[in-house]
Amino acid sequence: MAGAAVLGRLTWLVAEAVDVLTETPRTRTLVLDVPGWTGHRAGQHVDIRLTAEDGYQAQRSYSIASAPGDGRLDLTVERIEDGEVSPYLVDDLLPGDRFELRGPIGGYFVWEDEPGGPVLLLAGGSGIAPLMSMLRHRAATASEVPTRLLYSSRELGDVIYREELDRLAADGAGFEISLTLTRAQPPGWEGYERRIDDELLAEVAWPATERPLAFVCGPTTFVEVAASALSRLGYEPARIKTERFGPTGG
Amino acid sequence: MSFVSRGFKGRRRDDVPPERIPPGQHATRDFPVLSAGPTPHTPLSDWTFEITGEVAEPRRWTWEEFRALPSEELTTDIHCVTTWSKLDTVWEGVSVDTLLAEVETDAEYVTAFCDGGYTTNLPIEDVTDGKAWVAFAYDGEPLDPEHGGPVRLLVPHLYFWKSAKWVRGLRLTADDEPGFWETLGYHMRGDPWQEQRYWGD
Question: Does domain A119-245 have CATH number 3.40.50.80?
Answer without folding.
Answer: yes
